[in-house]
Design brief:
The protein is about 30% helix and about 25% strand. The protein contains 8 helices and 15 strands. The strands form 4 sheets. Strands 2, 3, 4, 8, 9 and 10 form a 6-stranded parallel sheet that branches. Strand 8, helix 5 and strand 9 form a beta-alpha-beta unit. About 35% of the residues are buried.
Length: about 270
């Protein structure tokens, strides 16, 4: 009797197929209000900071970083925010490493992400990032789609918060097909909400999209870590077992049935 091949799909935690992530640059004091809005609605953000600019009173200070961004992610934005494609590669490396050192001392964990300052980068810079301990970097721009990133060192957002935010949120919320993993990624600068008098926009967005059962709310690095763990699952040749060697639980579906949680170190029999 011929045996049909099983169909395996990677899922997000709890079997979800949609993820929302937020990304904000420069660490201005308006991050304080933005974090409150995120926390109120169960939304997670990644905050890219310039540790060489802490002498500016309009920026979040080192002694508040750990508490302010608790539950979110602190990420690099280079030490002094230069347009790095114009800089020698040795200086770019120094800008990133020095930023990491200071931010890690402030937040208490390894800082592994980056957003390119002024959206500036080159292929040479991208190639150097793994040796700098950087596992992803966000570019400037909007795609208006919900695809997962193909190149983590050219990670492009769905939209800036001033570009079709609510329209994209409504489209994202309406997605029901489970053949794909969908990601909505919003970026910006928190000071823009003061400058443009649009705090009501981000508040309305977070109230609308937050707290949904079918969306995973994650930081940038949580998405990277989860997808790496999912890709590292080890399946038996017959498709009846899977082993998870990572430290994270991973969820999969088999033949579009209920999701299985594969716990860290577990070998699960798939029925």
């Amino acid at each position: 009797m011929e045996r049909l091949l099983k169909q395996f799909y990677i899922c997000f935690p709890e079997g979800k197929h949609k993820v929302l992530t937020m990304s904000y640059d420069d660490g201005k004091i308006q991050d304080r209000r933005l974090v409150e809005i995120f926390n109120k609605n169960g939304i997670k953000g990644t905050f890219h900071l310039n540790s060489g600019l802490f002498d500016d009173p309009e920026r979040v200070q080192p002694d508040e970083i750990a508490e302010l961004y608790k539950g979110h992610e602190v990420s690099c934005h280079t030490y002094t925010h230069p347009t790095i494609e114009r800089c020698p590669i040795t200086q770019v490396v120094e800008q990133i490493i020095e930023d990491r050192k200071i931010l890690e001392a402030a937040c208490g964990y390894p800082v592994r992400g980056l957003s390119y300052p002024n959206g500036s980068y080159t292929d040479e810079i991208k190639a150097a990032l793994p040796a700098c301990g950087i596992e992803y970097s966000r570019v400037v721009g909007s795609t208006d789609d919900f695809a997962m990133p193909r190149d983590l060192y050219e990670w492009t957002a769905t939209c800036h918060h001033s570009h079709n935010l609510m329209q994209n949120a409504e489209r994202f919320a309406a997605l029901q097909k489970r053949q794909y993993l969908y990601m909505m990624y919003v970026w910006g600068h928190s000071y823009e909400f003061d400058r443009d008098n649009i705090w009501d926009l981000i508040e309305s967005f977070c109230e609308y999209i937050g707290g949904r059962d079918d969306i995973w709310y994650a930081t940038n690095i949580e998405i990277v870590d989860y997808m790496n763990a999912a890709r590292n699952l080890k399946y038996s040749a017959s498709g009846d077992m899977v082993y998870n060697p990572s430290a994270l639980s991973v969820w999969i579906t088999v033949d579009s049935a209920n999701a299985y949680e594969i716990k860290p170190g577990e070998t699960k029999v798939l029925k």
